[in-house]
Design goal:
Blueprint: H1 3-27, H2 33-47, H3 49-53, H4 64-74, H5 77-87, H6 100-127, H7 133-159, H8 168-175, H9 179-196, H10 198-239, H11 241-260, H12 265-275, H13 287-290, H14 298-304, H15 307-315, H16 325-330, H17 351-367, H18 377-387, H19 394-406, H20 410-414, E1 418-419, E2 422-423
Helix pairs in contact: 1-6, 1-7, 2-4, 2-5, 4-5, 4-6, 4-7, 4-9, 5-6, 6-7, 9-10, 10-11, 11-12, 11-17, 18-19
């Protein structure tokens, strides 16, 4: 252990002793053993909820501030400090990894932070002529939050041998995002206790934990979903670089069109995510066909039409994405029923597939292929008007035309990029 770290830990210990003596002298007679025990047990349960309910989980959901906040108002600063020091002890099966000085520092850290938070509450609350407990509680929570994280940050800095470059303000900026939410949860617990008692307080804690755990699970699920999409994009890129760029552009257009059609945010996000990999089935098509610079033969066209089915089959067993695979399967269906693979028509085609069909065609029209030149803005508008009700959903076309005429996609017409080795203005496409 570094000398500077030893000095810091000793200084923290003397700060703890000084604060303990001061709190005992000033608030020792106000302490309520029964109330302190109740809050210690409550905080211990909250601090260890994940492990107690699922011992295989390494993730511990902590709600220290929400539970400690009521102690600032209901207990003395000494009671809040003792509750914080003992209630935050975390249960672990790995007893061989127990380090006494780390354990002691954690107890000191929580004691000092909660003690100062309780003192701040007393000072602010007593200085106000009218009862503004919500203001006092917020400032106390802020004081606890700052002291707690400052003590931890200093330890981190000293133990990193100077390698930690982030400033304390940057460190706090990452943590402060949760402070407001923790404050309001703490207020909820406070009023639950004073209005309905201990049993209701415990029930609210359990409910908050379940909700917090649920939202964490949702975040993990969304992260997994994103990772799956990114992985498949890499697969697409390794097969055909053009297809990856095409998918990303179509996803961009899909976002704008879904928003213009006023779809719900959840529906919109799902469609956009699937749009990013809508041509994933092309990894099942031969490179010769995919990279051909000639117009496809009938046999080759029949083969490439299978990419929608290939994509569906590839992804159908992945639970996170299989509820939106009809978009991939049907994005080449036509509104009049002459598309593929099933020949379904009109509103029987999922809305996501109808949107994707328009955006897919738009990208091909603006970018071109090696054997067909890109179309101008006027030509694309004319093409969409002529194909509304036959190839495309009229509602989707109407919304798309408004976006085009408004200039949303003007960057697609103004680009002078080289596409597949040929100037965009000199090549054309089919869709």
């Amino acid at each position: 252990m570094k000398k500077s770290l030893k000095i810091y830990l000793i200084a923290a210990f003397f700060l703890f002793v000084f604060l303990l003596i001061s709190l005992v002298n000033n608030y020792g007679k106000l302490i309520s053993i029964e109330e302190i025990i109740f809050f210690i047990i409550s905080l211990f349960i909250v601090s260890n909820m994940s492990i107690l309910m699922n011992s295989s989980s390494d993730f511990i959901i902590s709600m220290n501030i929400p539970v400690l906040l009521p102690t600032f108002a209901l207990l003395s600063p000494l009671g809040a400090a003792v509750t914080a020091a003992l209630g935050t002890i975390e249960w672990t099966k790995q007893r061989n990894h127990f380090v006494w000085y780390k354990f002691l520092f954690n107890r000191i850290m929580f004691f000092v932070a909660a003690g100062i938070g309780g003192i701040v509450f007393e000072i602010i609350n007593n200085s106000l002529t009218v009862n503004y407990q919500l203001i006092s509680l917020f400032i106390a929570a802020l004081a606890y939050f700052f002291v707690n994280n400052a003590l931890v940050y200093i330890v981190v800095k000293l133990s990193k041998n100077g390698r930690e470059s982030n400033s304390f303000l940057v460190y706090l900026a990452e943590l402060v995002k949760n402070l407001i939410t923790s404050y309001f949860l703490g207020v909820l617990l406070y009023y639950s206790y004073i209005e309905f008692g201990k049993l209701f307080f415990i029930l609210v804690i359990i409910l908050l934990y379940i909700l917090k755990d649920f939202f964490y699970s949702r975040i993990q699920q969304l992260n997994s979903y994103t990772q799956i999409i990114e992985s498949f994009l890499k697969v697409i890129d390794s097969k055909d670089h053009y297809t990856e760029g095409h998918c990303m552009r179509v996803a961009e257009y899909t976002s704008e069109l879904s928003n213009a059609l006023k779809l719900s945010s959840l529906k919109r996000e799902k469609i956009i995510s699937v749009a990013k990999i809508h041509d994933i089935g092309k990894i099942g098509v031969s490179d010769k066909i995919l990279k051909s610079s000639e117009k496809l033969t009938i046999k080759e066209y029949e083969e490439i039409k299978k990419h929608t089915t290939y994509g569906y089959e590839l992804l159908k067993d992945i639970d996170l994405v299989n509820d939106q695979l009809d978009i991939i399967l049907y994005h080449h269906e036509r509104f009049d029923g002459t598309g593929y693979p099933k020949g379904i028509k009109a509103k029987n085609i999922p809305i996501g597939a109808r949107i994707l069909s328009v955006c897919d065609a738009f990208d091909v029209m603006t970018r071109g292929r090696k054997y067909k030149a890109a179309m101008s803005k006027a030509e694309i508008i004319k093409e969409f008007k002529e194909c509304a009700g036959t190839q495309f959903d009229p509602d989707a076309v109407e919304a798309m035309l408004k976006l085009i005429e408004r200039g949303t996609f003007d960057h697609c017409f103004l680009e002078k990029e080289i596409v597949e080795g040929l100037d965009v203005q000199a090549v054309k496409s089919n869709y």
